[in-house]
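Can't paste images in this forum, so I'm doing it all in text. The chain is below; anyone willing to post the predicted structure tokens underneath?
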Amino acid sequence: MADRLVVLHQGILPPNAEHIEALADTVYATEEELPLLLPGADILLCWHSITPAVAESWPEDPTLAPAWVHVAAAGVDSLLFPALVDNADVVLTNSRGVYDQAIAEYVLGLILALAKDFPGTWEHQRRREWRPRDSERIGGRTALVWGTGPIGRAVARMLRAVGMRVCGAGRTARADDPDFGTVHEGASLRPALADADYVILAAPLTPATRCMVDASILAAMKPGARLVNVGRGGLVDEEPLVKHLADGRLAGAALDVFAQEPLPAASPLWDMPGVIVSPHTAGEVTGWRADLADLFLENLGRRVEGRPLRNVVDKEKGYVRDGTALESC
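Text version of the structure:
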């Protein structure tokens, strides 16, 4: 008997839906329909990934919970609620690997935009003002990439390729990493922050990383440095960030993710000089939905054939550990 699959969507379905339907008894659910359709399902595909609807619709009876939940995103923080995490019979997978190169390119674009003041150039063009001025080099500048997973590694390789000096920040310090060279943690992190011209956040959002960039970390950053966040908005305490930007201690920031999304119209970040705001689109390049759908389809085929699933998340840690797989679910 085919698995019963519920696809949580927001009006846009996976582009390979007919292939998915050939492998599973598939029903489609909006946020409003999910409480009715989720209980008793074997699989939940969160095609609409950043939503509280899954937690709000999760069956009270653990035997009615799906055996496998897949999220069409790299981040799984919205799914790390106790009833799912504590149920050992529920396997969680994500879309690790889909966004790596796209986000690395986006980070390079943001750094170039900040260093060359492209927003200022575009504003002068809009006003028909001819204002020659100097810009900054990025070659030889130091970038600290905070988050040493696949996205962080792709970012590090991209920035090294254009002549930037790169180091990493992660859970384990080491001096011979193939992508970062030196990886800092704990006591060695603050000196690295004081040396970095750009701090790039590419870490997952977990209880351990929530608001990891707080007032003390921002104060430890090099005067005139810039912050780039393509991880999760919850990594940053935005109130002290606004203060450090307003008083000029930090030269700017490029932010693709925010504590509250969409970013409220009243947020001062919208209008701050030296700040680039984008709507959580760093990984959304032409064909990205097809890539997400193909990854899920591959995993669905693995389940049908009884083979290990890709990208199994350690639900206690909140991310995929290298080499993690599950024989069956």
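The CA atoms of residues 14 and 184 lie 39 Å apart. The chain has eleven helices and 15 strands.
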